[in-house]
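W.,

You were right to be curious about this one. When I first looked at the sequence I had no strong expectations either way, so I just let the prediction run and decided to look at it fresh. Below is the sequence, 235 residues in total, followed by the output.
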Amino acid sequence: MSKLEFLEINRNFKSYYRTLRDVNYYLINDTELDKEQIQATTQVLTKLIYGFIRTNGTLFRDMTSEQYNKEYHMFYDDFFSIIENSGVNNVDFDNFTTLLDEIIGVANSRTDTLRRIKKSMQEDEADDEEDEGLEIKISSEKEDDDEEKDAADEVSVVTGGANVVHDPKDVGVTAERAVNDKIKVGSNKSANVIEKVGIVSNEVKTFDVEELDEEINTFESEDVFHYRPKRKRYR
C-alpha cells in the first residue's frame, strides 16, 4: 500500500469501494440486470464512498457546512469523477487512494494559500493604519512645533532679539528671562539713584553744627559795618 499524506483509510470506505468494483466488474454482463440499475447502484456507492473520505480525523459527511464548503466543496466534481471512474474501470485500491490523496492535498494547499493571503492583507491593512496614524502624529507634532516657533519669534521681537531661542520649548523661559532682565535694569537704575541720594544724605548728615557755631562766635565785632545815618540839615 502506498503511503498517503492526507487521506485516512477506514473500514467502511474500503468496503464500499470494493463493492463498487465488484458491481461494475462482475455484474455488468449479467443479463438479468438492467444497465440502468447498475448505473444507479454505482452512483449510490460513489456517494457513500465520498461521504466516508476522512482527512485530519474528520469524515466529509461529519464536517460542518462551513468547513466543507470552504475547503472541499470546490473539488466535488473531481472527487466524484475519480471514485466513479475508478470503480467502473476496476482500478486497484492503492492507485485509487493515491489519486484521492492528491486531490485532498491540492484542496489543503488552496486553503492554506487563501489563509496566508488573507493574513497578509490584514497585516497590510494594519501597516497602512499604523502609517496613517504615524503621519497624523507627525503632522500634529509639526503643527505644535510651528506654533511654538511662532511664539518664540514673538518673544524674540518683544525682547529686541537679545536672547536667541534655539528650542521652542524654552519660549516661556526666554520670555520670563526677558522680563527679569528689564526688571533688573530698572532695579540697577533705581540703585544708582538711591546711591547718589545716599551720598547727598551722608553729606548732610556730616554737616558739623559745632564748627558753624564756632565760626559765628569768632566773628569779630569790629568787623561789623556800622551804618550811621546822615543828619538832615535844616536851613
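Here's what jumped out at me. The beta strands are 54-55, 58-59. And, maybe more interesting for your project: The first helix runs from residue 11 to 26.

Coffee later to discuss?

I.
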